[in-house]
Amino acid sequence: MRKVVFLDRDGVINIExxxxxxxxxxFTIVPGLFDALNxxxxxxxxFIVITNQGGISKEIYNHEAVSSVxxxxxxxxxxxxxxxxxxxxxPHHSVNEQCICRKPDSQMLEKAIARYEVDKTKxxxxxxxxxxxxxxxxxxxKGIKITANDPLINYLNQIN
Length: 160
Ligand SMILES: [Mg+2]
Ligand SMILES: [Zn+2]
What we know:
Layout lengths: L2 E5 L25 H10 L2 E8 L10 H17 L6 E5 L16 H9 L8 E4 L2 H10 L2 E4 L15
Parallel strand pairs: 1-2, 1-4, 2-3, 4-5
Bound molecules: magnesium ion and zinc ion.
């Protein structure tokens, strides 16, 4: 079984400017991210991204924009020598429709846990929002709440 560090995207991987991030030009990796992820990688963790992208439901941007941003993100991960097992995103928003994937619901985490045979007892979900912690609780993995845009390295003492 895998041990996984699940990562929220906006505010954890990339700088969250306080609104939706859907343009490659505005996608900026939080400084020091890959130093932290490489330490976790050396400890045997793999990574899966779990992100709400309700801007799709609100028609602020579309699936193609998300794909472009994720390609760009993955290229930077590749250059840093860090693999991402998968990316799950919820395109819904509660103002327009109900779903069971939008965090704090846990369907994205649960799908990933099943598909990648994740050991929940040895896995974590790092996010900057209370909804991330709700999803972690609902899925049964340990949540680590960080301050948005804060370097991950400051929180590694919470991970075995
Ligand atoms: Mg976030
Ligand atoms: Zn959803």
